[in-house]
Amino acid sequence: MDTATPDFPYRKIVVTGGAGFLGRFVVKKLRAYSPVDVLVPRSREYNLIDAQEVKRLLTDAKPDLVIHLAAVVGGIGHNQRNPGRFFYDNLMMGVQLIEQSRLHDVKKFVAIGTVCAYPKFTPVPFKEDDLWMVYPEETNAPYGLAKKMMLVQSQAYRQQYDYNSIFLLPANLYGPGDNFDLETSHVIPALIRKCIEARRSGAPFIEVWGSGRVSREFLYVEDCAEGIVKAAAVYNESDPVNLGNGREIVIRDLVELIARLTSFEGEIRWQANKPDGQPRRQLNTARALEKFGFQARTSLEDGLRRTIDWFENSYAPGTAN
Questions:
Q1: Is residue 46 annotated as a catalytic residue, yes or no?
Q2: By three-state DSSP, how is residue 229 classified?
Q3: In the predicted model, is pLDDT for residue 91 greater than 80?
Q4: Exactly one of 143, 157, 163, 235 is catalytic; which is it?
Q5: Nearest Cα to 217, choosing from 125, 91, 155?
């Protein structure tokens, strides 16, 4: 049976994590391709850590394509407090979804990895071929390694079973609808919330983890969703592919930029006793452009403005999450 549509080669699609931050943008882009049918399994309906629940999901949905976005994630502190959970939950979800997708004749599997999978001291810009140089940065290694096992599985399954699965490595994401919980959020939403709350309350300073000397690359969430959908449509190789914009920013400069954009004029107090994480992050994005024509379009300042506007208009004390 031909399941293709005029614009997208798969008709029935499961997007795990489709109700989450990145997932909502991916699902929106997929649903623009009528008559694509997208199912977003919720954790209360299907526990993806349980093999029987994964089997039930695929039996119920009968998808042609699975895009696996679901993950247990958080910032440096959350990773440090939950290394066992981050390893086990992410590993089990990925391993079982790929295996059961193969067994249920799902035509293609799209695995979403993490920039945390790269070695701690990777030559900049990070090239996909450098993934296995040495061990990842310690604070988020369990999460990064659990995700990287999907790459191993993807390549092994293509070799033995000729199974079509791909592995994508997004840079750090940000954008409207991000997680702004200070206990579990990543750096950009945490900084935005701190600066806006301090400005609103008249607080004279904010505290920021680390030294401010490390760098990161940030990818606007809607750009990432576009890259995932492009790859899902046309990329059919097991070589990993970075999704990013190829530009890094030093965290100290990022803080100053967010303070300016949020109109926070107070002091920045650096907590040098807190970990910095990986020293530098910047991705080589040539493979994504070559293989499926993806190139990020949103500048960091434009993306931050959109994210800040969303937070300013959506946030009420006690409701940010």
A1: no
A2: helix
A3: yes
A4: 143
A5: 125
